[in-house]
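Two proteins were folded this term; both appear here.
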Amino acid sequence: MKKKALHFIAIFALCSLIGVLAADEGSVPVKTKAPAWKLQDLDGNSVSSEDFKGKVVILDFWATWCGPCRAEIPGLDELQTEYQKRGLAVIGVSLDEGGADAVKAFVAKTGMNYRVLMGDEKVQQDFGGMDAIPMTFVIDRQGNIVGQHLGLTEKSEFEAEIKPLLAD
């Protein structure tokens, strides 16, 4: 009986992995105009996509409770520090339901150095829906989505993607 249960668990895990690997990375096609958005920062100030016109943007949908999201933060911090002067803006869009105060405490605790905004249903739908996070979009200086990443993405992968965009 134990052997059958282990066999079932192994098959279930394999099917789950195949499903994750085969998952569509959202329904917003790459090389299309990024949706315009307007959200609130952690202090309640209004921030919009227009504020980042002419910049290369890494737009990261995340949450404080998400392990892979938390694992990405140090790399995103480093990218913000290294490339901000060349025109990069890293923006975290929190999908936490606990409100801005909870996210603000997390940001202070971790020392995140990039802009964090509170997401809403509209922005999630505009970017194709969020079946899983982190979901990250790379947007060029012209406002086009040129990269999309579902799940934990290494700093080096983002870096390879943004370097040519920052050279423009």
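Next, the second protein.
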Amino acid sequence: MNDVLRLARERARAERSRDADAHTHNDTLRAAEEALAGLPTAPAAEGSDGHARSRAPAEPVAGLPAGARFEPAFLTPSQQAAVLAAVDAASVGRWIAGGTADSPRLIANFGGSPGRAAVTEALPRFLQTLAAGLAARLGWAAPPAHCLVNDYRGTSGLVHHTDGPLYSCSAVITLGGPALLELRPAAATGGGRGAPPPAHLLLRPGCALGLAGPAYSDWTHGIAAAAADTIPPSCVNVGAGQVGQVVARAPRRVSLVFVCKVRESGGRQSGISEHLHTQR
């Protein structure tokens, strides 16, 4: 009888713990949704009073390839904190190892399989809100329906790559810490002698970068593995007085990569490389 009572008490404690964890999880997701309630999720439209109801799409940035759009303050600090907490809550049980031996990272996938064209899973509501906000700010016709969360630690970087033909465009929200992104012409599109020079962009927490058109298909993007980044003259979003400054990497940097998939009736598209799973 004592053993039965002990087991019953242990089971009751475990169930209370699970209930508490679920309650905390739901509260965290709900807090992110509330924090994002003021995020504009539609392009600017002129009201009857002549004033715009929301912000206009982000303007192109001089020095970036055609099709790139940059929003330096897409999320406020409080929104960043709420989203990062929600990402951690929603990603429990989803993390897989990715990257390379020199630049390892964790990856959590939302929206279906990265290597399949059909979206089979709805995004959590806070990610849906972010996707709608990105579409509005970047001038896209529809919100992206897939998100890859990348968790970088310390010196980890990102090998240069394009995102491939399964997607038509991509957008990145940076959280937690800064990193210097390099964009350069892809070799397959004439990225040799006479090609445009590389461009650099300092990704600070809360910013959003969208890549579409030539910026998506004809330019690669990557981040060096380093403990700190030195701002080069080719960095398009800093002042002249900041060139040469050293920006230390944070212990943790998280990127939310939203992609617009190209749907195909066959379900899987040929030519999709393994980096969709491990090299994002």
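The first strand starts at residue 68 and ends at 71. The chain has one domain: 20-40+55-278. These notes refer to the second protein only.
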